[in-house]
């Protein structure tokens, strides 16, 4: 019952009070309280909910009100750092051990664990760190004192996506259930098909019959989804620039909006957005081109120095002039929680449906209308297929044809094929196609929030006009026109 404290074995948790006092939020979003209660009652929990739903709160709040320490397994450093910064700002004793943690801090954290009664409420670690004997030894000490409260796995779909190939430590996360069978596990994800869900549950060694599963819609009704068609013959840069400039002009020329912006000391040109490209070199070139056209744009990729990455990210988060648009590889994605991102553009077709939807999910986290555009060409489609084929050949050589490797390959192919079908489709609502892919039960709402619903005839016309013909693409393929280009 909302408002009433939750009780278990003589314990009482003041959930609403903690929500207000520690997290500064007025009320729970629908279902958050139920998930938190299930976690506190000691169940294994599988939470699947849309990007920006507020999944982190579902393991952070129990960690604060409950006894003991919560180990949070998170795939990316940037993701951990974001969450840690906001928890620290709320005065919570939180820590992380990763490849960049200084030795003295690492020792202090391990000492805290060694005493068996840690003061740290949440400890963020990578799957790789969980595989280390020394860390496991410390966890056993905590567990012996009955202080290991729960294991939280954030972005749990990565277990399935990455665990079977380039980050095998994800697969070793079954250690927790084997070693600490009485410690509950909560896993969270925004993007998991039913196959990925089953895989995650099986890898973590959870009993599907006993899990409390919360599978909410993946739908984000405030996002406007649109596919823009292009071909190699015609550069799509002018199309994007014209769109962005028209957005700036609309803000500047609308007297009410313009007055609002002046009052809040905001710029008409501050329309924060992210452009995703597949290659590092493109991020630099595109950001430079936008800058030369007067758009505040900065690149972001794994090859930049930490100082550059921090500067670009911080400037963008703070809405600083010159930092309005981030042109990034997928190194910039999960965990980015800037509320006023008004657009996410995919400069080419991404590698997977899941990646596409995760990245698009950075837009509109304040609930306001925002646009997600994907520039699709059949030439890029063929390049993506070729790259995937080459990557898979390499993988299979590495694993010498193991059955698991074949399965992983098949899943990747299916995901890319589904994304291609999404792009080629001019006869269905985009929201519907997305929710079908993720197996949502409920119909995804769409109020003119996609190119199909906005103008289906125009959509078809744009596709016919914008794409290269299949005959042309087939000739290109046969003549070997597309080279292999390693993804960044
Ligand atoms: N009950 C609430 N009331 C208001 N804001 C909330 C509430 N719960 C969470 N939020 C805010 O919603 C935002 C998104 O939360 P969070 O980063 O946990 O999303 P997420 O579900 O993990 O999304 P993603 O999968 O995209 O990372 C955060 O800024 C968080 O502070």
From TrEMBL:
**Stretches of the chain forming a coiled coil according to its record:** none
Q: Which SUPFAM superfamilies match?
A: P-loop containing nucleoside triphosphate hydrolases
Q: Where in the cell is it found?
A: Nucleus
At the top level of its lineage, which domain of life is listed?
Answer: Eukaryota
Q: Name one GO molecular function term.
A: 3'-5' DNA helicase activity
Enzyme Commission code: 5.6.2.4
Swiss-Prot/TrEMBL catalytic activity: ATP + H2O = ADP + phosphate + H(+); Couples ATP hydrolysis with the unwinding of duplex DNA by translocating in the 3'-5' direction
Q: Which SMART domains match?
A: DEXDc, HELICc
Which residue range or ranges hold the Helicase C-terminal domain? Answer: 260-417
* GO annotation (BP), single: double-strand break repair via homologous recombination
Q: Which UniProt keywords apply?
A: ATP-binding, Helicase, Hydrolase, Nucleotide-binding, Nucleus
Answer whether the UniProt record assigns the keyword ATP-binding to this protein: yes
Q: Which GO terms describe its cellular component?
A: chromosome; cytoplasm; nucleus
| Annotated Helicase ATP-binding domain residues | 36-210
Q: Which NCBIfam families has this protein been placed in?
A: recQ_fam (TIGR00614)
Family affiliation: Belongs to the helicase family. RecQ subfamily.
Return the protein name: ATP-dependent DNA helicase
State the organism's lineage. Eukaryota, Fungi, Dikarya, Ascomycota, Pezizomycotina
């Amino acid at each position: 019952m909302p408002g009433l404290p939750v009780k278990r074995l003589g314990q009482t948790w003041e959930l609403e009070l903690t929500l207000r006092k520690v997290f500064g939020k007025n009320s729970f979003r629908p279902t958050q309280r139920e998930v938190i209660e299930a976690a506190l009652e000691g169940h294994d929990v599988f939470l699947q909910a849309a990007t920006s739903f507020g999944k982190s709160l579902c393991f952070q709040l129990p960690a604060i009100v409950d006894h003991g320490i919560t180990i949070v397994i998170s795939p990316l450093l940037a993701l951990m750092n974001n969450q840690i910064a906001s928890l620290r700002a709320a005065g919570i004793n939180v820590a992380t051990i990763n490849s960049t943690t200084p030795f003295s801090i690492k020792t202090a954290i391990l000492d805290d664990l060694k005493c068996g009664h840690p003061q740290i409420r949440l400890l963020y670690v990578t799957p790789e760190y969980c595989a280390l004997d020394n860390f496991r030894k410390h966890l056993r000490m905590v567990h012996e004192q009955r202080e290991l409260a729960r294991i939280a796995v954030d972005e749990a779909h990565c277990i399935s996506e990455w665990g079977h190939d380039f980050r095998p430590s994800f697969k070793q996360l079954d250690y927790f259930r084997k070693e600490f069978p009485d410690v509950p596990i909560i896993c969270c994800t925004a993007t998991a098909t039913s196959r990925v869900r089953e895989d995650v549950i099986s890898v973590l060694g959870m009993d599907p019959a006993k899990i409390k599963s919360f599978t909410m819609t993946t739908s984000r009704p405030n996002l406007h989804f649109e596919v823009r068609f292009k071909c190699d013959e015609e550069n799509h840069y002018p199309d994007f620039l014209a769109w962005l400039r028209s957005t700036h002009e609309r803000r500047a020329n609308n007297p009410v909006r313009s007055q609002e912006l002046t009052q809040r000391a905001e710029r008409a040109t501050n329309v924060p957005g992210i452009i995703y490209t597949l290659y590092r070199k493109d991020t630099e070139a595109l950001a430079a081109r936008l800058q030369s056209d007067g758009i505040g744009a900065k690149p972001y990729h794994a090859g930049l120095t930490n100082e550059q990455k921090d500067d670009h990210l911080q400037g963008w988060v703070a809405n600083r002039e010159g930092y309005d648009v981030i042109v990034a590889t997928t190194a910039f994605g999960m965990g980015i929680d800037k509320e006023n991102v008004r657009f996410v553009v995919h400069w080419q077709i991404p590698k997977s449906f899941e990646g596409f939807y995760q990245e698009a999910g950075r837009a509109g986290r304040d609930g306001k209308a925002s646009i997600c555009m994907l520039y699709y060409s059949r030439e890029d489609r063929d390049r993506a297929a070729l790259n995937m084929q080459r990557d898979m050949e390499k993988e299979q050589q590495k694993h010498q044809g193991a059955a698991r490797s074949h399965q992983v390959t098949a899943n990747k192919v299916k995901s890319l094929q589904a994304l291609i079908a999404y792009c080629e489709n001019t006869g269905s609502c985009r929201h519907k196609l997305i929710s079908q892919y993720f197996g949502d039960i409920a119909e995804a709402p769409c109020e003119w929030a996609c190119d199909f619903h906005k103008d289906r005839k125009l959509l078809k016309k744009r596709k016919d006009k914008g794409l290269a013909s299949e005959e042309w693409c087939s000739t290109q393929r046969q003549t070997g026109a597309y080279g292999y280009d390693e993804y960044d």
